[in-house]
Amino acid sequence: MLADLTGAGIRRGETGKPWRGVDPTNWQRHWSRPPSELDELDRQGLIHWPERGGMPRLKKFAHEDGQPVDSLWDDIPPVASQSSERLGYPTQKPEGLLERIIGASSNEGDIVADFFCGGGVTPAVAQRLGRRWIACDSSRIAVAVSLDRLVKLGEEQSGVLSNYGRAGSVQTRLDLPETKAAVPDMRVHYVGVYPMDRFKAVDQTQFTAFILKCLAAQADTSDSAISGWRAAREPLLIGPADPDAAPDPRHVQAFFEACLRHLQPNVRTIARVVCWRASPELIKYRSTLHDYVRRNVQPRGADLDIDFLFIDSEEFRARIRAKYPDTEDNEFFLRFTKEPVIGEIVATKVGPRRVRFEARDAASTNAGGYLVNCQWDFHYQRGHFAADKDYILSRSEFKGKEAKVAGRKFEAVLEAEHTFDRAGEHVVACRVQDNLGAEAVRTLVVEV
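^ that's the sequence the OP posted. Answer follows.
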């Protein structure tokens, strides 16, 4: 079997220095043996080097002398309050514990799954040990914190800047000293609650299929402008996947003309354009189409009405919940969330290169939404947010009667302090997250 050659935490001595081009501090680790012993182990062929690069591992054999691990593991300390691993989750597990579990029960390339991943310890350790992984959590904040952690780890392992949330953008190489290993893509799947901004990167064909499935509609297999049918007399046109885009009036006209060909005498057809928004031009064009029906269709005994069904509306949600009565009491079933707002970031100098920051007028824009976490990045690179380790999980907790009065368990703490390592201009970013998983980032340029 393969065993870890590192221990949790950063050391400043010999065991914290790079060895054979691998720097353990990039993984918040240190070597468990001094470099001289590592050299000797490598000379004896007892160190495994992954083919695609990455962290070397110690080869262990069944016949070797050693003390078998007992069923009571009391040699792994919990995550201390000052530990570099600590995120703030009360049930956070130490990395050493997960290293033992994953190392003893899987091999490189195996799949490790954690369906209550919390702060992402399991997938992070699995990633570092060369395993594939699946991580899930019902908490949107847990997913955001885990993702932030895994993106950082992937960048450290690969030496390449992540393009998460910016599909198709060029991934630039980071200024890291040693050669790095290739890291597979990480994919995020949402179930039940969907941040609207994420749909910008969704392929239109996939989006159309998703909306039709939500409405229990059948896709139109012909070459017409009709996307699908929810019923025999309810044709559908699915608008753009981009929440900021309205349907093109030319597409609506083609949809209208296709619907005319399906009209039957003495039957009313309700054609629906399912979209995020409608432009003023489109609203006006709808009136023109209604006038055409009144003058040219109704006198022939048929009828056609064109209506808009907005995807982020309660009407859209109600139509789907009617199909799934078991979800009636689930407030998080099929919610499309909008970004929160941050009015401004205020900076106050409180010491030499030390600045206090406050996010003012920050709030959720979703019905029933409230902010539950606030993260800060004091070295922000445009389009790439990396939370400072002291502000990954920044929230206050309500307990007992206080929680009942507040109507919530957590509330975001919107203040932070930071001492910069150098004078000059810095770009600082604040990211707030609400209870539905929606998030927003605002930046401030500060002179220190």
